[in-house]
Specification:
The protein has a five-stranded parallel beta sheet with strand order 2-1-3-4-5, sandwiched between helices. By secondary structure, the protein is α/β, with parallel strands linked by helices. The protein is elongated. It contains five helices and five strands, in the order βαβαβαβαβα.
């Protein structure tokens, strides 16, 4: 079961996303602002973060920077009703996994979350395999015969 953190200042949208994602067998944590989201992020280390772009106080863009600074491999999905090409490009440059316009298609959202979780899983496997290679043995234990 994956843990997701959903951040949005609109309580109704937060509840809808929470229900949809819980039905997908995810543990869903919620926050209505960026400051609370960072507290939850530090305590729970969620697998994926979904955040609104425009929020009072800390914006979704700032939250994205903070999360990427603390955990570069955590996928962050931006959700916004105020999408522009410029804001989408800026979010992707700062490391957002995906950018979705509200109102969002829930099937699309579920697919994006699945893809983010798969990417994270593959990154963990890659990191594990690299550490195994680095810790691997050299040729000192090799036994061979030659004329």
């Amino acid at each position: 079961m994956a843990t997701l953190l959903v951040v949005d200042d609109e309580e109704r949208f937060l509840r809808i996303l929470s229900m949809v994602l819980t039905e997908e067998n995810h543990e869903v944590l919620t926050a209505q602002d960026g400051v609370r989201a960072l507290e939850i992020f530090e305590q729970a280390s969620p697998n994926v973060v979904l955040t609104d772009l425009k929020m009072p106080g800390m914006s979704g863009e700032e939250l994205l920077k903070q999360i990427k600074g603390r955990s570069p491999n955590t996928p962050v999905i931006i959700l916004t009703a105020y999408g522009t090409v410029e804001s989408a490009v800026a979010a992707m440059r700062q490391g957002a996994f995906h950018y979705i316009l509200k109102p969002c298609n829930m099937d699309e959202l579920k697919l994006v979350v699945r893809n983010a979780l798969e990417l994270q899983r593959l990154a963990q496997v890659n990191q594990y395999l690299r550490s195994e290679l680095e810790a691997g043995k050299g040729f000192e234990d090799m036994v061979g015969r030659s004329k």
